[in-house]
């Protein structure tokens, strides 16, 4: 993995509140190496380590994108949902930002069947040949499928790398990746387990600005990698 410069500064991380952890009563002692201080009952994340791990994660996704790998970004809590969708669309990644449906990856056959149904219903709706009652039923079905599977509707197989915004919120998604051996990159706050994901980035996973900053850096690296892949194809 070649190291590159991704313009990650301590100033922008401070401004985004990346350093703010959870209260000192709600923490995982295994996160101690990533914590630099306590302030007013809150743990402060060591931003020097965050910058290092984020830079290494950018190198990782750049190399993967340059090799034509496919990414899935997962973040379903309200504070993360919009940032996840924007970041994924910009980098042409798949995403889940509303609800993780159990077995989405581990039971890929069922997920794939639902996606086929999704595309089939879309085709039927576009033809405009449905009866009024049937059209209403199809519309309701499509609305539900779009809500929960709209971000993966073009996914034709399991992703090569999964980026997870909140380890605790997306624990089921992380467990499915571990079961299948899919590499994961995960934001970890001070209450998380640092060794679950393949690649962890210590950061505030509750603040919108913090989530957006981390995703922006990763997405930029993915886009750069994709451009390199296209140039070399």
From TrEMBL:
A molecular-function term among this protein's GO annotations: structural constituent of ribosome
InterPro entries, A to Z: Ribosomal_uS2 (IPR001865), Ribosomal_uS2_bac/mit/plastid (IPR005706), Ribosomal_uS2_CS (IPR018130), Ribosomal_uS2_flav_dom_sf (IPR023591)
Transmembrane segments: none
Keywords: Plastid, Ribonucleoprotein, Ribosomal protein
A single GO cellular-component term on record: mitochondrial small ribosomal subunit
Listed Pfam families: Ribosomal_S2
Superkingdom field: Eukaryota
Keyword Plastid attached: yes
Record-level GO BP terms: translation
PANTHER family associated with the record: 30S RIBOSOMAL PROTEIN S2 PROKARYOTIC AND ORGANELLAR, SMALL RIBOSOMAL SUBUNIT PROTEIN US2M
Family stated for the protein in its record: Belongs to the universal ribosomal protein uS2 family.
Name this protein carries in UniProt: Small ribosomal subunit protein uS2c
Originating species: Acacia podalyriifolia
